[in-house]
Amino acid sequence: MRCVSWLLLGTSLLVLGPAVTGAPGQCPNLCHCHGDLLHVICFDVGLKKIPRVSDATRLLNLQRNSLGDIPTGAFSESKGLISLHMQNCQLKEIGSQAFKGLTKLIYLYLSNNEITSIKPGAFEDLTELTYLYLDGNQITELSKGIFAPMINLFILQLNNNRLRELRPGTFTGAKDLRWLHMANNTLTTLQPGSMDEVENLAILHLDGNRMATYPIAAMSKLRVVEELTLGRNLMRTIPDLAFQSFGRYMERLHLDNMGLERGKSAPLCPDPVLILPFIWFQFSDGAFTGVTAIKSLHLDNNRLKTLPKSLEYGTLTNLTLTNNPWTCTCSLAPLRRWMDSSRIRPEALCASPALQRGRQVRDSPVFSGCKVKQKRTKKGTRQ
């Protein structure tokens, strides 16, 4: 195979000479071409400019070349492209009309570059684009309507950027978006209205950001979220009905490593002169109201002593609870009853009362005297 590749490379050098950009209908210099130019592979070959390829080309792989930017019209003769790979190309900016003419493009990979901004009109003509990867860049903001041409966008990867906030209109036009990944940014909030256009999201990753409060005004517009990750956001508040708008569909929820507490906490550094107020941490009892399909819930590495009363355990098949200071009293009896009836008995150490400290919740005898609260029935209902 390696011999064939070198033969192809040698043939292209003889045909094209020293030109880097090549000519339509021919394999660009330094690249490997397959299937009558259907696939053009220019992986890590030292290109400085985007090569010209035939409109017969369906896949163009430009990974690991120092391209720097995408000139307007760079793909004007590549209108047949379906998949474009530009990872690790040291791209700094996506200019207006950078992909003009690529009306058939479905896959666009721009991961692991140095992109700081995306100009309005950058994605013009990308009406068939379905998968867009922008993760591993330095993008700080997204302008209103930037994704508007992408009426078929299904997956959007924005992990590991520097996004600070989401504003209304960001996703205008992207009504079919289903997977949105925004983990490991610097988001402090999702503004009300910022998620209105993507109410059909199924997967939403927001872990590793800087949100101090659950953005309920924005999130309440979502209808069918199946997987939500919020871990590593130091949220002080998760209110009543936080997940209700999509609770019938949500199966996987990550709330790990968030510093979650229930109740008030003293300031971390009390001042002997100043009287500092207590900080209120509210993981509300009604936070899980309407959540009826949850299968996997991650609550490890928080400061939880008890769990919200609205949490229903019946559908759970995976629950992580480690590294929380659990208070082993009857307030945790519903959890213990679920453990006793389930094959899954997660680790959870009692921190109090003193006699139970260090015991596993699943093994503590303290729950044997806890009464089961009967659900109230409506008037006239027979028992």
TrEMBL record:
The residue range of the signal peptide is 1-22
Sorted alphabetically, which keywords does the UniProt record give?
Answer: Disulfide bond, Extracellular matrix, Glycoprotein, Leucine-rich repeat, Repeat, Secreted, Signal
| UniProt-listed SUPFAM superfamilies | L domain-like
The UniProt entry, under InterPro entries, shows: Cys-rich_flank_reg_C, Dev_Immune_Receptor, Leu-rich_rpt, Leu-rich_rpt_typical-subtyp, LRR_dom_sf, LRRNT
Q: Which PANTHER family match?
A: CHONDROADHERIN (PTHR24373:SF277), SLIT RELATED LEUCINE-RICH REPEAT NEURONAL PROTEIN (PTHR24373)
**LRRCT domain mapped to chain residues:** 324-371
Name of this chain's protein: Chondroadherin
Protein location: Secreted, Extracellular space, Extracellular matrix
- According to its UniProt record, where is this protein mainly located? secreted
Pfam families in the cross-refs? LRR_8
Chain coiled-coil ranges: none
Name the family the entry cites: Belongs to the small leucine-rich proteoglycan (SLRP) family. SLRP class IV subfamily.
User: Which domain of life does the protein's organism represent?
Assistant: Eukaryota
Species of origin reads Knipowitschia caucasica
Q: Determine if Repeat is one of this entry's keywords.
A: yes
LRRNT domain: residues covered: 26-59
GO CC, any one term = extracellular matrix
